[in-house]
Amino acid sequence: MDKSILNSKIGFGTYQMRDETELFNAIMCAIKNKYDFIDTATYYKNEKLIGKVIKYAKKHNFNIPYIQTKIWVDKFDKNIINEVKKSIKNLNVDYLDSILLHRPHTNMELNVKAWIGLIKAKELGLVHHIGVSNFDRDMIEILYNETGVYPEINQIEHSATYCRLDRLNYNKSINASIQGWRPLGLLSENLENKTLKAIARRHKCSVTDVLISFCKNFNVIPIVKSSSCERITKNKKSLKIKLTKNEVELILLKVNTHEPTTSAKNDTFANLSLSNSWYKTKKTKYKMI
To answer: Can you tell me which residues form the catalytic site (predicted)?
Structure first.
């Protein structure tokens, strides 16, 4: 299989990272630790800052990871080719390795319009791979029915806290590479979970290691984020942990809540599209590291 962002092992997330120094140090640490790709989005408002890091890394002959961004719904009715070109310029790259529609719009016609725009962007060589984020089966089937093109990537919430086997199976059936956002789930709760702690002791690793390894068992590419270089390094090493089939089944039975970690428990289509804060977790439960 040819190496591409589609068969990556781990990605580095940049949501809420807007401090220039913090972002620079974090991304350079991720680059040095050979993370497969950097994930951003126009909604994160940090493309230009990431572009500065990429420019520095190129100048100093570092191997640049794949670069992925996402287009927010307020641009779905705009000229998508122009939006892609803006991101390319902001990120200081010649092309994008992948670009996704960040979330579905309540107007399905706009979803289709934006998807057609991404198809054209790929045909023009502006991007190598195109996909979606937080799109469910029905929405993806509409995109396919209208264009004959399935997304190559679907970035969805996936963790030990919230694992949807139906979504995983569907995306695999259309050969979409699955990326998992918030792969640590409700971390504060998971760090104290007896089942996860017992598995971690068995493998002589941390609970965080177990959570990242859990994604690997489903061929989901975890997108992890941290401002700590020590943690960024440890997260990459978590891929070496191999959970047993029984351990994975136990996590599904004891840890999986079958509910999104978002504050309103929304993660798809209409509900998701009605609020700009749909993915914010309850502050008492979610802890970033």
So the answer is: 44 (proton donor)
Q: Over the stretch 133-159, which tens digit does the pLDDT of each residue have? A: 999 999 999 999 999 999 999 999 999
Q: Is residue 233 a contact partner of residue 210, using CB atoms and an 8 Å limit?
A: no
C-alpha torsion sign, points 195, 235, 229, 56: negative
Structural contact between residues 119 and 59, judged by C-beta atoms closer than 8 angstroms: no
Rounded to an integer, what distance in angstroms lies between the CA atom of residue 126 and that of residue 221?
23
Q: What is the DSSP letter of 286?
A: -
Closest CA relative to residue 105, chosen from 275, 273, 285: 273
Per the annotation, the verdict on 44 as an active-site residue is yes
Residue 82 tokens, joined: 């122009």
pLDDT at 288: 32
- Amino acid letter, 100: L
Q: How many residues does the chain have?
A: 289
The reply to whether 102 sits in an annotated binding site is yes
Residue 289's pLDDT is 34
- 183 contacts 224 by C-beta, under 8 angstroms: yes
- Residues whose CB is less than 8 angstroms from the CB of residue 246 and which lie 6 or more positions away in sequence, other chains included: none
Query: Are 239 and 9 spatial neighbours (Cβ–Cβ below 8 Å)?
Result: yes
Q: Which domains does the chain have, with CATH numbers?
A: 7-273 (3.20.20.100)
Q: Which of 15, 35, 44, 170 is catalytic?
A: 44
Q: What is the pLDDT of residues 83-109, one digit of tens each?
A: 999 999 999 999 999 999 999 998 999
The token pair that represents 59 in the structure block:
């100048």
